[in-house]
Write a structure and sequence with these properties.
This protein has 516 residues and is an alpha/beta fold. 32% of the residues lie in helices and 22% in strands. It is built from 14 helices and 22 strands. The strands form 5 sheets. Strands 2-1-3-4-11-10-9-6-7 form a 9-stranded mixed sheet, sandwiched between helices. A 5-stranded parallel sheet has the order 14-13-12-15-16. Strands 17, 18, 19 and 22 form a 4-stranded mixed sheet that branches. Helix 5 (200-215) crosses helix 6, helix 6 (228-241) packs across helix 11 (371-380) and helix 8 runs antiparallel to helix 9 (294-313). The longest helix has 21 residues, at 408-428. It is globular and about 75 Å long. It binds xanthosine-5'-monophosphate. Xanthosine-5'-monophosphate binds next to loops.
Amino acid sequence: MSPTDRPVLVVDYGAQYAQLIARRVREAHIYSEIVPHTAPVEALLARHPAAIILSGGPASVYAEGAPQVDPALFAAGVPVLGICYGFQAMAHALGGDVDAAAAGEYGHATAHVARPGLLLAASPEEQSVWMSHGVAVTRAPAGFTVLASTPGAPVAAIEDQQRRLFGVQWHPEVRHTPLGQRTIEQFLYYGAGLKPTWTPGSIVAEQVEAIRQQVGDDRAICGLSGGVDSAVAAALVQRAIGDSLTCVFVDHGLLRAGEREQVERDFVAVTGARLIVEDASQTFLTALDGVADPETKRKIIGREFIRAFEAATARVPTGQARFLVQGTLYPDVVESGGGEGAATIKSHHNVGGLPEDLQFELVEPLRALFKDEVRAVGAELGLPDWMVWRHPFPGPGLGIRIVGPVTPAKLDILRAADAIVREEMTAAGTDREIWQCPVVLLAEVRSVGVQGDERTYGHPVVLRPVTSEDAMTADWARLPGDLLARISRRITNEVRQINRVLLDVTSKPPGTIEWE
Ligand code: XMP
């Protein structure tokens, strides 16, 4: 049995915490998936979950229409951990008391651990925890032992080892709870008896098998973008079906300096993959001519991308391909409205922007993975560090980093500035610390400057360095001042049309990482 046959299901009660919980479970090398709280108990149990975690959520158990937990869940013999709202809903469903009038706690709190039990084994008597609740459990349901309390939550952690039911009021999944990962692992390893078998090696083995099953004797093509996701997806599929895969690299004219050459030369050298380069830059630039609206640009690029693939398949030496491999990741799926109730923020070109007349069936071997997991799989496949640790680059390329209509001249300006930024950041050794650093050309803004006694009237570029774990949220990266100074000096000296370098100091939310 493979580690994904019996997932740990994280039931999402509508807060942003479910993803974090799923990540923490995976960090413990156990496969987890997020499911909506609207899924009936029978549907959850039909997945044969190895354990279930009920996430936090914004509601109060007494609020009208608040999601409830079906008590049948606790009678199914599946180990359950309730967190925050999930903990309260569990206590409520099993006959405990939840006091709506209790004082709320938000932020750091000190938990007093009266008896560690199984869940808090090895916890010191006091541990620092992160709280976010307005109501509190005041009496545990029958059969449970109370393990800990905080000033605002008299019953802050409980367990019933017999029934394998556990609950904590605080958030063990956030880094602000230093011993939180340990608590989650206690639940998984000892509460649920799970083994840490979900590893990069097992992911590769499982995906290779799944790809072989899906593709059979047919052929596939894979769109390479030059980024880590498509490279890892292609390498996985190559391992599964060898030369039945042809990689297609679409040069859409929106690439950064040197990218086409890197794919043509280096990727092929490392993987031995069969590669076709489709030069469609003219088509893209014509289709984008005069278009300023970001969503329209994204839709056009998405549409042309697929058209270019279709044209390329005509050139596949072994004949028509039936499958298209894409490096779609879990966050893309969630952000494109794939998750229950999630709003569409942007149409990611590899998910929301597909045309209705798509002529391929999709193979998406990374669809369940977060970025760091993709990197681990890439390393497992033997891809070199520079490929695995490349910063993400969006499919629509520089097309969404030029604010306003895209032209060849603006692309040249942005390419030159971007190359300087990448060079300096790599030289400064910041590549692994930061998630990515888009460089954005404000092509419709001009400002007055002075250079060599001459008046200039140039454009600004914006540096958008961010730190992030998965691009769902991000913070602006505090790059060293001397690095920023070097970048600024070089750009304004070497790229004639740019006379100002700006730094974007907005987190996500409210800003997104890309400007369009
Ligand atoms: P945002 O701008 O939504 O970006 O905060 C989140 C992450 O996704 C990348 N991105 C894309 N990747 N196709 C992609 O393959 C796209 O259409 C796309 N749009 C944004 C972005 O670079 C960041 O890493």
